[in-house]
């Protein structure tokens, strides 16, 4: 399971070091794509296969489904870490997630999210007051 929060930086070539804890879960080859909330999602190959199979099942007749599938697959790339455990984030994905210098990598169960540090802090400031309310809602779902 992927979990934890790690602060890193993007080097001048657009590379980020993959934390050791995440390397153990992901291996050296993985999938990166545009995520929700202006972050990037990183998946183990097997998790990506599960997700892509589910996305293929969405009805082509629905514009929202087509848009969502386009969003995920158009940004997807297979990446590999170098010997220093760095991976190159493609320019279009760096632009999408506004990754310039300081970034935060977080483990979210079956994926890693990569956030611009300022955006991550703003998101946390926004969501923290709502956590109790969200927790009460999850109780209704049996969690």
How would you summarize this macromolecular structure in one to three sentences?
Residues 5-47, 76-119 form the SpoVT-AbrB domain. By secondary structure, the protein is an alpha+beta fold.
Helix content: 40-55%
Name given to the CATH homologous superfamily: Transcriptional regulator MraZ domain
Strand order of the largest sheet: 1-7-8-4-3-5
CATH fold call: Chemotaxis protein chec
Q: For the record, what CATH class applies?
A: Alpha Beta
Low-confidence stretches: none
> Which secondary-structure class do the elements indicate?
alpha+beta
Number of strands: 8
Strand content: 25-35%
The CATH architecture can be given as: 3-Layer(aba) Sandwich
Report the radius of gyration as a whole number of Å.
16 Å
> What does the average pLDDT come to?
94
Biggest sheet overview: 6 strands, antiparallel
What is the string of helix and strand elements? EEHEEHHEEHEEHH
**Distance between termini?**
18 Å
Morphology:
globular
Q: Count the DSSP helices.
A: 6
Q: Any idea how many domains?
A: 1
Could you please describe the fold and organization of this structure?
GO terms for molecular function: DNA-binding transcription factor activity; transcription cis-regulatory region binding. Its main location: cytoplasm. Forms oligomers. By secondary structure, the chain is α+β, with helices and mostly antiparallel strands. About 40% of the residues lie in helices and about 30% in strands. It has a 6-stranded antiparallel β-sheet with strand order 1-7-8-4-3-5, sandwiched between helices. Strands 2-6 form a two-stranded antiparallel ribbon. The model has no long low-confidence stretch (mean pLDDT about 95).
């Amino acid at each position: 399971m992927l979990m934890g929060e790690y602060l890193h930086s993007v080097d001048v070539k657009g590379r980020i070091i993959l934390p050791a804890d995440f390397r153990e879960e992901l291996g050296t080859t993985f999938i990166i794509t545009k995520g929700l909330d202006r972050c990037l999602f990183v998946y183990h190959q097997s998790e990506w296969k599960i997700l892509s199979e589910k996305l293929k099942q969405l009805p082509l007749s629905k514009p929202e489904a087509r848009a969502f599938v386009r969003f995920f697959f158009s940004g997807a790339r297979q990446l590999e870490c170098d010997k220093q455990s760095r991976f190159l984030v493609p320019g279009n994905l760096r632009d999408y997630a506004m990754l310039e210098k300081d970034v935060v990598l977080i483990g979210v169960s079956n994926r890693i999210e990569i956030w611009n540090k300022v955006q991550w802090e703003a998101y946390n400031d926004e969501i923290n007051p709502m956590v109790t309310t969200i927790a009460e809602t999850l109780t209704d779902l049996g969690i």
